[in-house]
Design a protein that fits this description.
Homeodomain-like_sf; mainly alpha; Tetracycline Repressor, domain 2; transcription cis-regulatory region binding
């Protein structure tokens, strides 16, 4: 049987190629025409699976959000639930930082995002937080996660020691930060998350409506 001249397309293959393109060149580097070129097909072939680029991006965002773990709320411990959610949320976003601005725009109608928002809100209210506070806690956690995922503190420093010598005496070791970026960024996030949770426990103890 002769091989087809045109590569066989599937939604999964299209999403995988599109995410590879975004990971490599950013959101601005993705177009249906360019994606078609990557797949070895005509752009018209993609529209049978996805009407618009945004439809495609929503499905990619949905797949990324499927990796976010909200099972920590099942035992009724809100702090454990938030910790598991926040860490897995950051990991899912940090794996694809160029997708973060699109995902961060909101859940919209994305099923995976809405299921997780529902689980987080239900876990917090079920643990005793008033609904308004549950909403604010979810929002604040998202701010923390998105900020950590979209940027690296440590990689923002130059690795040339001469940049800091003499002029910035308190940054004499700053040239080493990028070398240890993964640990610094991870530990910095955990510190911020822990301080946030401690503050919640101290300032806003759960209570019944």
């Amino acid at each position: 049987m002769a091989r087809p001249k045109t590569p066989i397309l599937s939604p999964e293959r299209i999403r995988r190629a599109a995410l590879d393109l975004v990971d490599r060149d950013g959101l601005e580097g993705l177009s249906m025409r360019r994606l078609a070129g990557e797949l070895g097909v005509q752009a018209a072939s993609l529209y049978g699976h996805y009407r618009t680029k945004d439809d495609l991006l929503h499905d990619i965002a949905n797949e990324i959000m499927e990796k976010v773990d909200v099972s920590g709320f099942e035992g009724g411990d809100w702090r454990h639930g938030l910790t598991v959610w926040a860490r897995s949320y950051r990991a899912a976003l940090a794996a694809h930082p160029h997708m973060v601005p699109f995902i961060a725009m909101g859940p919209g109608r994305r099923e995976a995002s809405l299921r997780r928002a529902d689980a987080v809100h239900g876990g917090l209210t079920g643990a005793g937080w008033p609904p308004r506070m549950a909403t604010l806690i979810g929002a604040a956690t998202k701010y923390l996660v998105v900020g950590a995922a979209i940027n690296s503190f440590a990689r923002g420093f130059d690795d040339d020691v001469r940049v800091y010598l003499d002029r910035y005496p308190n940054l004499s070791q700053a040239h080493r930060l990028s070398e240890h970026a993964a640990h610094i960024d991870g530990d910095g996030f955990d510190l911020a998350l822990s301080a946030f949770l401690d503050g919640l426990a101290d300032r806003f103890p759960p209570r019944s409506d």
